[in-house]
Amino acid sequence: MKQHDIPVPFCDQCSMENGALFKNLTREEADIINFEKEFRQFRRGDILYKEGSRISGFYCIHSGIIKVFKTGLDGKEQIIRFAKPGEIIAYRSVLSNEVACTSAKVIDDCQVCFIPSEILISLVKSNPTYALEILKLACHELGEANSFITDIAQKTVRERLAEILLLLLNDFCIDEQNYLKISLTREELANIVGTATESVIRLLSEFKTDKLVELNGRKIKILNQKGLEKISNVFN
Hints:
Elements: H1 11-18, H2 27-36, E1 38-42, E2 47-49, E3 57-71, E4 77-83, E5 88-89, H3 91-96, E6 103-116, H4 117-126, H5 128-154, H6 157-172, H7 186-193, H8 197-209, E7 213-216, E8 219-222, H9 225-232
Antiparallel strand pairs: 1-6, 2-6, 3-4, 3-5, 3-6, 7-8
Helix pairs in contact: 4-5, 6-7, 6-9, 7-8
């Protein structure tokens, strides 16, 4: 099916399905976005934008998964988060009028709506409820960043990997075969945890031996959630 053959999702319908921020828009504001936005499709491996680039709008994810990451001086990625349906990315660079501080890459074929910068600025100025929700979102992401910094400083790699698996379970749930609904390479897992790929491979093997997880290529099945919680110290 060609891109122009796929019906463009309407913001009001999308907000009901995914709980997106656009649920706070008036009918007039939703109509403006529906008219101005561009519906785009991307394949796994496609780059939406790169760190340091000037972007002219932000993205709302309709389907698929996108990883948001920073690149270190050695070229190694540090994954910041995964964006899933109903979430938006690149909005902070739009609001601050700065170059992109992260890069975004597709890890699961996706459909997104690209919304011009001036639309977001206008909504923030004219719709206090929407502006407050954007502020809450930014604060939530800042809180997650603070937690990550604390984990890097105070937790072992084993504890961090266990916590990441629990977070992936919470964010993406499981499929009909009880595998996580997100498929990541060992390198990508290492880039979330903040360690070497070899360490993640070794620890996953240990988790498998301890009957905490089951591995099938990139797929991971959580067998013992309580055991991972104990290792991660996430609830201590």
